[in-house]
Design goal:
about 180 residues; alpha/beta; 7 helices; 7 strands; about 35% helix
Length: about 180
């Protein structure tokens, strides 16, 4: 068996806050539609930092930084990832559409596309809307979106925690978008 040694933080060559701010981000935004848990919000910040997401929209009742409970899971990512607060998620979707984004709800809908089957277009900007822990993405927001993406699930439960959903979906989009970029060069 080969010897494995965990890397020390100093060996990981992570970006500094300044380097992160200057780094080229993925043309990918996250929209939180009335997400109530500070821990979920913090986890979305941390995941967004990990994958160089361009910005997060915090909408409705979704709390904004700074907040000590959010910081427990964000671990400083709330200081690196750009964020915008909107009174309503609809305002965020309108702004994103105005900037040329394809806006996709992460929701179980008639006609939704399974995440593993979705193919992002080269050079397109995307925004992913994640919903409230109990009610999901509001129907009026779904109605404004360009489509719905669904995570295939095979067990007895029909939903995932919003922070888990964010991790899965952001990883998949980041992977596919980076792969598109490397094959189009």
């Amino acid at each position: 068996m080969s010897e494995l040694r965990k890397l020390k933080i100093t060996e990981m060559n992570r970006l500094t806050v300044d380097e992160f701010k200057e780094a080229r981000k993925l043309p990918l935004a996250v929209v939180l539609d009335d997400v109530r848990s500070l821990h979920n919000i913090g986890a979305v910040f941390r995941t967004s930092d990990a994958f160089l997401i361009s910005r997060i929209y915090l909408c409705g009742i979704t709390a904004v930084p700074p907040h000590p409970e959010m910081h427990k899971t964000a671990l400083g990512a709330e200081l690196t990832v750009d964020w915008i607060y909107c009174k309503t998620t609809q305002e965020a979707v309108e702004e994103l559409h105005g900037e040329g984004y394809t806006v996709l709800a992460i929701e179980q809908c008639e006609g939704s596309t399974m995440l593993d089957e979705y193919k992002p277009e080269p050079e397109q900007k995307y925004a992913l809307v994640l919903g409230n822990e109990v009610k999901g993405v509001k129907q009026e927001v779904v109605d404004m979106c360009d489509g719905c993406i669904e995570i295939p699930q095979y067990g007895t439960k029909h939903s995932l925690n919003v922070s888990v959903t964010a991790g899965i979906v952001l990883w998949e989009f980041a992977y596919k978008m980076r792969k598109l970029k490397s094959t189009s060069c």
